[in-house]
Each structure stands twice: as C-alpha cells, then as structure tokens.
C-alpha cells in the first residue's frame, strides 16, 4: 500500500483513540465549588471574552484570581479568546460573565473536546508526521510505525482528552521547532519554539537545549563571520516574536510584572500533591518542606537543576547535531522535572515529547520511559475517573510499540548503547546487559500493573491514606532517575560508528 | 501467523476502547433487551421464559440463545445482582455496563478464531513478499476491523461477533471440506438466532447436492445413482439432535406455539422505523412521491390519505397511499423468487464450496432486499461472508467495495448522538480507506468505474447534508424525518445495484461453465 494511505490510517486510528477517550469524564466534573482544569479553561474563555486585555491578569471585581485566575502566558489567553468567540456563536451562556461559572452540559463538553481535537489536528499531528518522515531513519514502513506509536502515547491522550488541557498545542509547537531546526531552518525553528514558550511557560524545560543548539551552531560557523549573522538573525526573531506576543501588555511595565508574577508563583512551595520527582520522594525520608525555608528550597532546587542539566548542555554546545539535540531535550526537561521548583505531575509530558522522538532509535528505553510516565499520573487518572481509558490505552500502546518497533528483539548491548555501563561495571561478573535490561523491563511492567491493580482494588491502611499514590510516585521516580542517568550516558558517550555515519548524511 | 496475531489483538484493544467510553453516557435499546433476557433466564424457570412479558422487550431469540444468556447470567451475578431482577427495567449500574461490554468482548474470541480459520482457507498467490499485500492478511483486517460489526456490537450492543463467528467458522469448515462440522455449526447458529434461516436454503441445497451426492455426471449435472443415504442420515441426525436439544423441552411442555409466536412477530410493520436500504424503501419512496404529486395535481384528496404516510421513516406502521400495500406473504414470495436462481444454479452446476459461499451471500442479500421488517444491521450477514470472496477475485472486490461502503453508511443512523458522530465517521473512514487501498493494491488497478465512484462520493455529500446542514435548517422541526429518508433511499440504490451485479456475476459464471462444457 502507498505511504499516504498507511499514514492516513495511522492518523485516523490516533484520532479515533483520542475521541474515544474524550467521551469519558474530565477533571472536576460535577465537583463544585472549584471544579477542575476543564472549568479553568472555560473560565479563561469567559474572562478573556468579557474583560479588556489589561484586566486579564489582575484581580478585579470582575476577575477573581483565586478562582482559576489566568496563569499562563498571553498566547493561551488569545487562544481562549478565540475559543470564546466560537462558543459565543454556538451558545452565549457558555461564556456569560459570572453567570457561566461552573457551567457543565453535554453540548459544552462536546464543544470543549472538539477544540482540543482541532488544535491537535492542526498543530501536533502534522508535526509528528513530518518528524517521522523527514527526520527519522529506516524504511518507510518503519516511519509509519513511528507515527502510529507517537500518536498512541497514552499520557498525552489521557491528559488532553481525559483530564482536559491543551498540551498538544505547546508540545506541538515545540515539536515544530525541532522539526524545522532539523530541516535546517534555524530562524523558523526559533520562531516556533518562542510561540510554544508563549503558550505555556513550562516549555522553559526545553529552552536550554534550543538555546545551546542554536548557539553551538553559530559557534561552528565562526562567531566572527556567518555565525554572528545567524546569531543576530535568531536574536531578532526571538525578540520580535516575544514583542508581538506581549504587545497588549507592553504599554505598562506594571502589566508585564503582573503577568510574570502570575506565570511564576514562587510562593506555592517546592511541590504539591504527589509528584514523582526528587523532592517529593525525599520527603518520604526527610520532611524538607518543614525543615527548610522557602528561599533555601528555591536555591537548592535551582542549584541541583543547573548541575543536572550542565553536562548535557555543554556537550550539545560543543557538538550541535540533531541526535545530541534530541537527547539534550530529554535530559534537560527530565532534569527540570526531577529537580526544579513547583513541579506538577503533568509536567512529565515535557520530557515525554523528546523521548517519543527517540522511539525509533532506542525503542526499549523510550517505551519504558513513556509507560512509566503514564503510570506516574495514575493517581490523577483515578481522581478523574479515567481508569478504563488508562488501562486500555496503556495496553494498546505497549502492544503496538513493542510489536511494531520490535523493541524486544533490538536489545543487544550495542543497540542499547550500554557500552559505558560495561566499563563502569568492570568488576562485576560478566553478564549480558541487554538481557538484564529486558528482564528489568518485564519486572517493572509487571510491578506497574500490580501497583495499578492495588491502587484500584485495595483500601489503604487507615494510618497511611496516601500509601498507594506515594508508592506510585516513588516507583516512577526510580525509573525517571535511572533513565535520566542512562540518557545522559548515551548522550555523552560517543555514538557507535554506524550512527555517526548516518548523522553525517543527515547533516 | 505472527501478523495474524497482531490483527487478532489489535481489534480487541480497539473494541475495548470503544466500549469503555460508552460506559457513561449512552445505552441503546438493545442494551436493555439483553439485560432483560439475562434477568429472565436467570430468575425464572424455563417454562416461563417465553411467557414473561414485564418488559416490552420479550425474549424473541431461539432457545439456545436463551441458554447462552442463562450461562452469562451466572457470571453476571458476581458483578451486580440487581441487573438480574426482571422488574428492574432500564437498570444501568456501572458494574452492569462493564459486565455487558466485557461479555461482548470475551465472546468475540469465537469470531477471532473463525477469522483465523477463514484466512487459512484463502487461496494464496505466490510471489508477494510484503506481508501487508497477502490476501489472507487483507481478509483478516477486513473481517476483524469491519466497521459495521464494530459499531453494532461494541457501541450499539449486540452479540453479532459471537454469532457471525459461528457462521464464518461453519463457512471455513465447508471450504476445508469438513462438511459435517460445518452443518453442525450452522444448526447451532440457527438455534441461536433464527434470522439465519434466510441463508438456510443455500446450506440445504449445497449439502444435499454436493455432500449427499458423491459424484457428478461428466456434464456437471447430478448423478442420481451416487446418492449416499448414510450421509443424509448423518446430516439429518445432526439437525434433529440439535433441534431437539434446543426446542425439545419446550415441545415437551407444550409451549411450541408460544415460542414460535415470539420468534416470528408478524405484527410489526413492513419496514423498521428507520427503513433499511432495500427494495421496500424505494417502494415507499415512490409511493410517497406519487401521493405528493397526486395532491399537487389535485387528483387526490389530502383528507382521504392515510395519516401516517406523511411522517414516514419515524413511525413503524406505514400505509401506502397509492401503491398496493405489501403483506408478509408477498415479501416471502419475493424473497424466495429472488434467491431461487442462485439456489438452482448451485444445484445444477455446483462449483464447490466457493459457489456455495456465493449463493449464501446472494441469499443473505436477497432476503435483505425483500424481507419483512428488515433491520439495517442485517446487511452484515451479506458483507462479512462476502469479504472472503472479495480477496480472491477482482470482480467480487469491486462489488464488495460498493456493497460495504453503502451498507456501512446505512448503519450511521444507529449512532445518532452528537458525541458519536466523530467516532462513526473516523471508523468508517478508517475501514473504507483500508479496504479501497488494500484491494486496489491486491488487484493492481482501479476496481470501480467512474459512475460508481461518483455515487460513493455522493455519500459524503449526503452525510454533510443530513448531519450538518439539515439540522441547522428550519425544516428540522417541521420534517425531522427527511435525513433518515434520504439516507435510506440513497443507500438502497447502491445496495440494489450491488445485488444486481452480484447476480450477474453468478449467472455469468453459470453461463461460462455451460459454455466450457459445450
């Protein structure tokens, strides 16, 4: 069959899965007074439609910031405004100021789900198809398989179409950045990334690799001549894009400060709920939150984050290739997730995006990571009533990715790039690290299934009501930490000969 | 076999997925029908099964299916006991829904096994190395991902996967030459759901002609002397013993008339509320057009017209105003006449199990075209077995594409809520795109002529008109039946066309066979 038909079948399948999940419940459904993220997005439509721009980020009589105040950058606000205009056309009640608060109805749910689907279809899915066809290696069939596996990643589907958010926009724009940079159009790539940063500030997790990659490229071309020109071009693009996005707020410095203050709420503490990152996991042993002051927490997290991203960034700066870039994106965003301040469990989607891009190169570790990332959000899914979609999409993803990418056949030491481990473990008895990895994978998947089952079926002991969410987050944390080390080692160790050759070709 | 494995698992995950969503917001009448049957078979003695009428959805499947429900109910009681109480009408707890949906998925295993057996008996061409290009792979995908089956079973709710599994398994057994097993399976199937009586003539004549007569004359006609009474007795004992097992207890209790009256309710109208796309849809349409025309030309008096005729499509009873009304016996005669040539052709010139399969498809389609109170879902009875022929011959592939696309589109009104619109469109596109591209690749070239392509593209226009444009127009309130009417009339054109082409292909084969012998 021709490629186009195979790709369309994959895309249709991905869309079906998305819409099927979207028929389920959303966060905060029928839970007054605060509801959930769904209501937050609806509320932003209401606010942006009815209030003038300069009131969006301020606490006024018409805009109570304590009730889902706008805390995303301007592009999100514009997007809400756009959706609000459509909503107004369909049913004015949906965006009525004050009166629409907590509005829930069948029609409105359909409308909101449709907005996610449209955004996904316009931004994320084309980027995935382009990436797989232009920037990944292998036969056409392999590329089609990659498209399908990326589109079926359960974490993103469940958060966007179940829980309710627009991650596919910010992630999609970042992916456009990667694709365009990979094709060699540096200016357009930086434009796409700045847009994604202006849609969701969490994209900062990806910013350092973008910066290092572009800077490294400028260095390579020589900072005296063409490199400088390129640097200036990129800098101008970034500044102009930023200025355009922030245009309505530029007139008054107070506006800018207020927006920035809304975007980075430092006062909210080191972490909330149960997150699979270092601080939450450490909290089991030491109660950091109570021992240290907020400032100290801030400094500690800043230092550790910087330390964790330093090696991969320096390596990327020295050697700005696409391969290094993808790995640096993983390493940087994962380090941010594990060590930075005020991390949400949903932020795991940010490292998950670049890991999706590695599905073709390092199938087993990538699948492992993606599955662990979905698993780490289990408590959230249970709260939203998304158990069945979680089980089904996870099973489907595992099945399709392992089978189509033949993940379990390609796990020799060489393919998994485990050479450096061999050198580290020189004193250990000789064993086949590839096989060990495979068994660890089986064990971990079984454990995830077991923990999922226990979270659903068993009642936690009375004195430890948070036992299962905690176990889930610590267990996933161990995965993330191990994979952070692994991806760092893969990035820093020189790639094997064959890969290097391919890279030369693609450059 | 590895690829089969993929395909086997894939739809399961898919079906699960489709299933899960339905949990929260939508239950079809068939869902309640089956819940009620679970309750009846579980809580009442056998003697009351066919007398119970608390719910309007009385047990109207043959006894074996009642026993099937009975065995399911023993699992069901571990999910939620309340669903097994007859008086709990429209009872839908999450556990009930989960159980019902899971029961469909689990019993689908029969279907998957049957597909595997069918794929084994497909003729393979040599040379093709690409896995995706193998006929057996395409067949597996066409059957397992069949759009109609997915939406009817997993969204709407019925146990067709299980039933068609038995049908396909029986067909596969005939293709493999294991006729007694095939006959046994079909008898069981008949006792599960009597709608398969429509294809019983194909089975009966085929088994009689090609199994009970062991040899042909040189010109292909029947050699009467080769009749094997042993084989006939074997067949007969299978049929009678299964029938006795199923209906025996009811005959013993003297309830046979009661059971039969439940199984064949001729009190319903000629057409279902939504007209299945068959000859009667066209007939009704012509009648309506004539009556409107008559009123316009002042030849008819509006007051004298039967009232229901002006709301057609939403009311069960449809009275014809100009053309003569159709009685059940007329539909029966039409059906018999329509399948007669096909059945005669396999009697006169048997062409093995494949000829039988073609005849079976003709019977299924013929009864769909002319039957009494036909449901749109019955089109699957022709589409699924036809898939096997479609991957083996170019001409059949063309007919198959016409038939499946129109037939599947005609199922759209089954899912009518706005939330299901994207799902049905996406799934339909998925299946249609796959069937077109894979069959085109298999037979290396276009399979449809421009007129057929235009007709099929017209379906897109119909869909947009009926589900997007019309609801926004002012006529939605005054004449809400128009979209259904347009859908069924448009689809019935395509189904009739496929039926005629199928017949032509059958008779032409008949002709060429004769020609060869001359």
Automatic annotation (TrEMBL), chain A:
Pathway participation: Protein modification; protein glycosylation
Assigned keywords, A-Z: Endoplasmic reticulum, Glycosyltransferase, Membrane, Signal, Transferase, Transmembrane, Transmembrane helix
Annotated signal sequence range: 1-22
Entry superkingdom: Eukaryota
Any one Gene Ontology cellular component term annotated for this protein: endoplasmic reticulum membrane
Record field: transmembrane: 110-132, 144-161, 173-197, 227-249, 322-341, 348-370, 390-408, 441-461, 467-487
First-tier enzyme category under EC: transferase
Localization annotation: Endoplasmic reticulum membrane
MF (Gene Ontology): dolichyl pyrophosphate Man9GlcNAc2 alpha-1,3-glucosyltransferase activity
Topology in the lipid bilayer: Multi-pass membrane protein
Catalytic activity field: an alpha-D-Man-(1->2)-alpha-D-Man-(1->2)-alpha-D-Man-(1->3)-[alpha-D-Man-(1->2)-alpha-D-Man-(1->3)-[alpha-D-Man-(1->2)-alpha-D-Man-(1->6)]-alpha-D-Man-(1->6)]-beta-D-Man-(1->4)-beta-D-GlcNAc-(1->4)-alpha-D-GlcNAc-diphospho-di-trans,poly-cis-dolichol + a di-trans,poly-cis-dolichyl beta-D-glucosyl phosphate = an alpha-D-Glc-(1->3)-alpha-D-Man-(1->2)-alpha-D-Man-(1->2)-alpha-D-Man-(1->3)-[alpha-D-Man-(1->2)-alpha-D-Man-(1->3)-[alpha-D-Man-(1->2)-alpha-D-Man-(1->6)]-alpha-D-Man-(1->6)]-beta-D-Man-(1->4)-beta-D-GlcNAc-(1->4)-alpha-D-GlcNAc-diphospho-di-trans,poly-cis-dolichol + a di-trans,poly-cis-dolichyl phosphate + H(+)
EC number: 2.4.1.-
Family: Belongs to the ALG6/ALG8 glucosyltransferase family.
Described purpose of this protein according to its UniProt entry: Dolichyl pyrophosphate Man9GlcNAc2 alpha-1,3-glucosyltransferase that operates in the biosynthetic pathway of dolichol-linked oligosaccharides, the glycan precursors employed in protein asparagine (N)-glycosylation. The assembly of dolichol-linked oligosaccharides begins on the cytosolic side of the endoplasmic reticulum membrane and finishes in its lumen. The sequential addition of sugars to dolichol pyrophosphate produces dolichol-linked oligosaccharides containing fourteen sugars, including two GlcNAcs, nine mannoses and three glucoses.
UniProt protein name: Alpha-1,3-glucosyltransferase
Source organism per UniProt: Oncorhynchus mykiss
Automatic annotation (TrEMBL), chain B:
Main enzyme class: transferase
Residues annotated as signal peptide: none
Record key words, sorted: Endoplasmic reticulum, Glycosyltransferase, Membrane, Transferase, Transmembrane, Transmembrane helix
Record has Transmembrane helix as a keyword: yes
Cellular compartments annotated: Endoplasmic reticulum membrane
GO MF annotations, alphabetized: dolichyl pyrophosphate Glc1Man9GlcNAc2 alpha-1,3-glucosyltransferase activity
GO biological process, one term: protein N-linked glycosylation
Membrane topology (UniProt): Multi-pass membrane protein
GO CC field: endoplasmic reticulum membrane
Residues spanning the membrane: 134-152, 159-175, 195-212, 232-252, 330-348, 355-374, 411-434, 455-473, 479-500
Pathway(s) annotated for this protein in UniProt: Protein modification; protein glycosylation
Broad class of where this protein is predominantly found: endoplasmic reticulum
EC number: 2.4.1.-
Family the entry assigns: Belongs to the ALG6/ALG8 glucosyltransferase family.
UniProt name for this protein: Alpha-1,3-glucosyltransferase
Organism of origin: Oncorhynchus mykiss
